[in-house]
Amino acid sequence: MAIEHSNIDYSERIPNNVDLSGNRRLQRALESWQPNYIKWWQDLGPDRSNGFDVYLRTAISVERDGWANFGFVKMPEYRWGIFLAKPNLDRKISFGDHKGEPVWQDVPGEYRAPLRRLIVTQGDTEPASVEQQNHLGATCPSLYDLRNLFQINVEEGRHLWAMVYLLHAYFGRDGREEAEMLLERHSGDADKPRILGAFNEPTPDWLSYYMFTYFTDRDGKFQLAALAESGFDPLARTCQFMLTEEAHHMFVGETGIMRVVQRTCEVMKEIQSEDPKQVREGGAIDLGTLQRYINLHFTVSVDLFGQEISTNAATYFNTGLKGRYLESRLDDDHRLTDSSWPVHLVHDGRIVLEDRPAVTAVNERLRDDYIKDSQRGIDRWNAVLDSHGVDFRFTLPHRFFNRHIGTSAGINVTPQGEVISESEWQSREGGWLPTDEDQAFVGSLMNRVTEPGKIAAWIAPPARGIDGKPWDYEYVRFN
Ligand code: BYC
Fold first, then answer.
1. 46 CA to centre of ligand 1 in angstroms
2. Averaged pLDDT of the chain
């Protein structure tokens, strides 16, 4: 294997810390993928943004002080590259059948297919999210928000590079073919859709976007954390570095929704009413609509954890390819030979909690961690309501509400966790999930605001700006 550095070589066409120039074949392969990537960015990345100067962070090293370097960049000139966290030469596999063995620097032949599949699935989500968001620049509520959108987009693009590097470097010809396919499947495409459900859903407006970055990017956090435990060291180190960038994406979602809630509270105070109709007339998003958006985006994201009982997941765990959240900090045998885990299941139309072999329940366990983490934002949004003396409380719906993957797919469950009939679902669904009318209303608020210091009327300004700059800084220059 090549020598690797923590500093990134920016004199190369593809910035990297994996000594790419020491492997000409790989370098040539990636350099021939690069124009296809740029073409994809031009075609399906942020609409009509090529000439903008955007205040973006770019990693110049994977050290603590080097990964967040700010400056104005035109997005097609962003230095997408290949950055792996520093190696730990003594690292051992920490779970599964190979626990205690040195981590792999190459792909173990017998695990090649499932490993490739995990990398492809992860890689597929990254460009999908850019495609889902490509039209949002036309309706941004402020320059600050526009900049954050673009930051997330370029980083998702880089996360695609991260997976494409692994495919090219370790999977030969089929890896190269998979890398091509990552640019050929498209979000919502009837013939060649993205692999996972949530990544084919539209992100029609900025409320959906904040919900997506809060709930769906958080799936990214948990999946990347599980892959960061992998026995395949290049994957683990790639994901470790990706996680440093992921935090900002969830921050955009959490604070975005918080600012919407803040504005709604201000309007309710001004008009002395919490009546949804009057709140909407006041130009804010009523709390019921916000709850329905939470319900939708939470459930679509919860589906991303797969089946409650999964032999795929057990195989990934046993073979050392994908661990649990913070695997090395868990206090057990890390093999799960005799342990069990409580799993929500549906039996004879009833929801039950039953112990199942833990190794088959690792998807569900990751979902448990995710749900716990998701609750934190709900608590913060409720604290905003509290500080305005508003009684309403946001809640996460039951994990079986509105599911399309897993044991509750196809049964109707209320947000409170009651199983109901199809006809009852039909009559009550509009109270739980965004209606056409909700979406039309939210859509009607989406007008582009790009003057520094100005912000759309449905959202409060952020508490602070980016990189120590004021929030009303000119983060995007249109030229
Ligand atoms: N949609 O045994 P199961 C991110 C399929 S987000 C469609 O549970 P497994 C990001 C499944 O493929 C993180 N199909 O499967 C966020 C399987 O198919 P086969 C993305 C689904 O493999 C925002 C079958 O159902 N990373 O980074 O244990 C912006 C049986 O299911 C879905 C990853 O997901 C679904 N939702 O679990 C940008 C990590 N769920 O085998 C980026 C890599 C399941 O019957 N992926 N199926 O043909 C994985 O670890 C696994 O593939 C999954 C699925 C956890 C997703």
1. 26
2. 95
